[in-house]
Design brief:
13 strands, 2 domains, Rossmann fold, about 375 residues, 16 helices, seven-stranded parallel sheet, six-stranded parallel sheet
């Protein structure tokens, strides 16, 4: 616990549903170490529930891909101006950036000019693309807290203060039951995880529903569970389901993806943190991803990794099938799902690979370890 004779002010910025959740857990851990501290920034409902004063809702800023970012540019610029003004007015003891690199890396220079310490939690994935930006990152942050095992070695090459803190998803009590069979699903349900952004859902859910219809032709007993992220308007998903899901027996689930993991035999998942979450829970899956043609062209030109799935990156090979762009079509998706349901050896082999991935993600306590780093930076900054 930090001794203090004044209230500490911490600004924290998270722009995705997963970042909002991880940031909220970090805030709760920090409050135990710095009683009476004040938190404000950009985030969502999880951060708000943790006691963060939300000055700009993260869901307004969410974008994916080049053309999608252009469409959001006016509101993104407005959010940046708000944050920069707040940094100058409040002069917080610490700025914590959580993922969300296209926004956060533009905020960090303002903090550094004001001599505000910067902690970056869940580092920008410049190891995947824009590796040349790693050298610049050294001048923008005081410490990186990374959650993937290979990231620490990458950033150390650039002499950036970095600590592998483990993955916060490993803290979930659901994973630490005596019985190692995490997925106690029947074969009756398949989960559809279309993404945590409006545009992602609009691109992926219609394809998933078409694949679901193909699977029903072979397996009429199936039911489908559609994830509704809290960053996506429920009416958006209801509209897509009405248009594309006719005849598909489904249920909208807004209680979180773990509810789906506990029931589903497998999931169709849009690329993102949720694919690693499914792997950690031991749920067989197929990863799909579609962006605009322009975004895809830029991505092919810039990306330096062989896989998009985090579990595949950690494993160093494709343990989960990845279907990208044109390959992410209903026929291919339905074919892989059918194989996963029919081939027990394939399914069990995938689950064994998931156990190895989970072991590489470190032990529980990521939020506590990041909180310790944060307290150290505040202490070093003095009063």
């Amino acid at each position: 616990m930090m001794d203090t004779d004044r209230q500490r002010c911490i600004m924290i910025i998270a722009g995705e549903a997963s970042g909002d959740l991880h940031a909220s857990k970090l805030v709760l851990a920090m409050k135990k170490k710095i009683p009476g501290s004040f938190f404000c920034g950009i985030g969502g409902s999880a951060m708000k529930e943790a006691g963060v004063r939300i000055v700009f809702d993260a869901s307004i800023l969410a974008a994916v891909g080049v053309t999608e970012s252009f469409a959001k540019m006016p509101v993104i610029l407005k959010g940046m101006r708000s944050v920069k003004h707040l940094l100058r007015d409040l002069m917080p003891d610490l700025l914590i950036l959580v993922d969300f690199p296209d926004f956060n890396l533009r905020v960090a220079p303002t903090a550094k000019k004001l001599d505000i310490p910067v902690l970056y939690y869940i580092s920008p994935q410049i190891w995947a693309w824009r590796q040349g930006r790693a050298a610049k990152l050294k001048n923008l942050v005081d410490h990186l807290a990374v959650i993937l095992p290979f990231e620490e070695e990458f950033y150390k090459k650039y002499d950036i203060p970095v600590t592998f803190v483990g993955h916060p998803l490993v803290d979930d009590p659901f994973l630490h039951r005596d019985n190692g069979d995490w997925n106690r699903a029947s074969t009756e349900f398949i989960g559809l995880l279309p993404g945590s952004r409006e545009r992602e859902v609009e691109r992926h859910l219609p394809v998933m529903l078409d694949a679901a219809r193909m699977l029903l032709d072979r397996r009429p007993e199936l039911g489908f569970l559609v994830s509704v992220a809290h960053t996506v308007e429920r009416v958006t998903i209801e509209g897509i389901v009405t248009r594309y899901g006719k005849g598909v027996p489904l249920e909208l689930v807004d209680q979180g993806v773990k509810t789906i993991f506990e029931k589903a035999a497998l999931v169709m998942a849009t690329s993102g943190t949720v694919t690693l979450e499914a792997a950690i829970y031991g749920v067989p899956e197929v990863i799909i991803y579609k962006v605009s043609p322009v975004s895809y062209w830029f991505g092919k030109w810039l990306v330096n990794v062989k896989h998009i799935g985090l579990a595949n990156l950690i494993a160093g090979r494709e343990i989960i099938p990845e279907l990208i762009q044109k390959a992410a079509n209903p026929k291919n998706i339905a074919g892989i799902c059918n194989t996963l349901m029919s081939d027990q050896n394939y399914r069990e082999s995938m689950k064994r690979e998931f156990i190895n991935v989970r072991k590489r993600l470190g032990g529980p306590g990521a939020s506590e370890r990041v909180a310790d780093i944060a307290v150290g930076l505040i202490s070093a900054g003095g009063d």
